[in-house]
Amino acid sequence: MKIEVRIAQWLLASVFLVMGGFRLWQALHGVPMGNQTLLLSSGEVLLGVLIAAGWQLRAMTLIAAILLLVDAALSHPFWHYSGAAMGPQLLQFMKNMGLVGGLVLLSTAGGAKRR
Fold first, then answer.
1. How far apart are CA 17 and CA 47, in angstroms?
2. What is the rounded distance in angstroms from the CA atom of residue 40 to the CA atom of residue 58?
3. Which of 6, 16, 33, 58 could be a cystine partner for 37, CB 3.0 to 4.6 Å?
4. Residue 47 class from Cβ within 10 Å (0-12 exposed, 13-18 middle, 19+ buried)?
């Protein structure tokens, strides 16, 4: 695999490792969190590890892309806001869309060798 693809793989994996790990770290230090958040955060960390390691890279990146699409729609519904409140939601929504694009590209660039 080309080094630039490997770097992209690690950077995209770091999003899941850092954000999932951060929420788990907070929970360990007494920040109250629901069981769903803890489960999702654990899944994010696992997904980040698997992407960073390159295990079933195509499948893992597509799962991550779907996860981010759902997160964008549920967590950042910019279409429900107006005025100044819309800006931050739109920014976060589009950040997720950019990550989805990177994950889809990685799913095609980093997979197993074709015959």
1. 8
2. 21
3. 33
4. buried
The confidence score (pLDDT) of residue 51 equals 97
Helix axes 3-28, 86-109, angle to 10 degrees: 130
Tell me if 13 sits within 8 A of 48, measured CB to CB.
yes
Whole-model pTM: value is 0.87
Type of residue numbered 30 = G
In the prediction, which pLDDT does 100 show? 97
What is the distance, to the nearest Å, from the Cα of residue 104 to the centroid of all Cα atoms in its chain?
12
With vertex at residue 71, the alpha carbon angle to CA 82 and CA 103, rounded to the nearest 5 degrees, is 120
Token pair in block for residue 18: 């850092």
Cα(106)–Cα(8) distance, integer angstroms: 8
> Which amino acid is residue 18, in one-letter code?
V
> Is the Cβ–Cβ distance between 109 and 25 less than 8 Å?
no
Spatial CA neighbour of 61 closest among 96, 12, 114: 12
- What mean pLDDT is predicted for residues 39-58? 96
